[in-house]
Design goal:
Layout: E1 2-6, H1 17-31, E2 35-40, E3 53-56, H2 70-73, E4 78-81, E5 95-98, H3 107-112, H4 127-144, E6 149-153, H5 158-168, E7 172-176, H6 180-184, H7 190-202, E8 205-208, H8 211-221, E9 228-230, E10 253-258, H9 267-280, E11 284-289, H10 295-304, E12 311-315, H11 319-328, E13 331-334, H12 344-350, E14 355-358, E15 371-373, H13 378-390, H14 392-407, H15 411-426
Parallel strand pairs: 1-2, 1-6, 2-3, 6-7, 7-8, 8-9, 10-11, 10-13, 11-12, 13-14, 14-15
Antiparallel strand pairs: 4-5
Helix pairs in contact: 1-15, 4-5, 5-7, 9-13, 12-14
Length: 427
């Protein structure tokens, strides 16, 4: 079986869990005998291609005047984004809709329809334009390759998946790693929601990363339950040993938050819980690793609470430094307001770090050895952190059994289910 797969990023060039999940899944699919052609907007040349044939959309030439693209192009509206955007985050500012469908004879048409598009592969101001251009390139790739199934990851690639389906008449499976309700709460961006819903409606089958996400797809997007299947994420085996990082340089215990500093991830609740813990124990240091639109607000709040001497902001960490951070951590906290899944707790547990996670996360469906709290319950969160720091027996149990639990969560198992979904889509 051969799959044409569309993604927006691939390790090592990632911004969060999306690229990591794509890499793990493709490795698992290879072990299941599935060949994957993985398309990204921009390849850098240093990606690990042991399990995929990576196609760089920036290298693909298209002739938009070819009649096979006509129907698709005439229904495109571009959305110009006045802010930065990453896969699980909402736009910060506003959207200006610029409809190019009537301008097929204008200068704009000539500039937009260059024969080869150079994608940035980023999440900046021209993101929506790149999403639509990526869909046009997807048509070319679909027309020139042989494959059985199309698989599109997250809303950025749904238009590409739809375009490939129209050209090839092959079944489309979309993978929902997050929804606009996860990113923005009830204050959704209608344009992003519309793209998500269009993808879901055009998909033959849908994969959700948790039952939490599956329920949102059914209830908020009006999709038939028979069409949506949950496949929980897994975690890659650790590539470092326990003794690789031993220097801590501080005598205090360390409690870590690692993720985008955005509304969805609940960083403000982490700060408030840190304050409560420090009222009972001054020998603790808190680390917020990541970047995002709430970072400056969190820095100001830490200063207002007068805990700056016990609180550290690292900015974004690459994979090696994530491993190093976990090796120094005594507790990991994921207080997400709405987390479709959440791979980082699995990475922490794999590194022998006990975790506190919100009940509003998909990963809470599969983890037994994690302390689970409501994201908004600051008292419960601080009590959970304090308990893991001070009751050694409790911490040892969660470390020992948590590590075993995570080691059993393999991408091969997830890939086996995904392959079964491919077969169902073909029948």
């Amino acid at each position: 079986m051969k799959v044409l797969m569309f993604g927006w990023e691939f390790p090592p060039h990632i911004t969060g869990g999306l690229g990591t999940a794509c890499f793990g899944l493709t490795k698992g699919l290879l072990n299941q005998g599935v060949e994957v052609i993985f398309v990204v907007p921009k390849a850098y040349g240093d990606e690990n291609q042991e399990s995929v044939r990576l196609v760089n959309a920036s290298d693909v030439s298209i002739d938009i005047r070819n009649s096979i693209y006509k129907d698709y192009w005439e229904n495109i509206s571009y959305i110009e984004v006045g802010s930065n955007l990453i896969p699980y985050a909402s736009p910060d500012e506003f959207y200006d809709i610029i409809n190019y469908t009537k301008q097929t004879g204008s200068d704009t048409y000539e500039s937009v329809l260059s024969k080869k598009y150079e994608f940035s592969g980023k999440y900046g101001q021209n993101l929506m334009e790149e999403v639509q251009r990526y869909a046009l390139v997807a048509s070319t790739i679909a027309s020139k390759n042989n494959f059985d199934v199309i698989h599109a990851h997250d809303w950025l690639t749904y238009p590409a998946g739809i375009a490939a389906k129209k050209i090839s008449n092959k079944p489309l499976v979309i993978h929902v790693h997050a929804t606009e309700f996860d990113r923005s709460g009830e204050n959704i961006n209608q344009n992003v929601y519309d793209i998500e819903r269009l993808g879901m409606e055009n998909a033959d089958l849908i994969i959700s990363v948790s039952n939490l996400t599956r329920n949102i797809i059914i209830e908020r997007y009006g999709i038939s339950p028979e069409k949506v299947f949950t496949v929980h994420n897994a975690v890659e085996p650790s590539n470092y040993n326990d003794n690789q990082y031993t220097e801590k340089n501080v005598k205090e215990k360390i409690v870590t938050f690692l993720g985008r500093v955005t509304f969805q991830k609940g960083p403000d609740y982490f700060v408030e819980a840190a304050y409560k813990v420090l009222q009972k124990d001054k020998n603790v240091r808190f680390v917020m690793a990541g970047s995002g639109d709430m970072l400056n607000r969190m820095i100001r709040r830490v200063a207002q609470l007068r805990i700056s001497n016990k609180f550290h902001f690292t900015g974004f960490l690459d994979a090696e430094n994530v491993d190093k951070m976990f090796s120094m951590s005594d507790v990991y906290v994921m207080p997400s307001v709405s987390e479709p899944f959440g791979i980082s707790p699995l990475e922490a547990m794999r590194s022998n770090v006990p975790v506190v996670i919100s009940k509003q996360s998909g990963v809470s469906e599969v983890l037994k050895y994690a302390l689970k709290i409501d994201f908004w319950d600051i008292d419960a969160m601080s009590d959970a952190i304090y308990g893991l720091l001070h009751y050694d027996a409790l911490s040892r149990i969660f470390i020992k059994y948590g590590k075993s639990e995570v080691d059993s969560m393999k991408w091969d198992n997830a890939a086996k289910i995904v392959k079964e979904i491919y077969i169902k889509a073909l029948n």
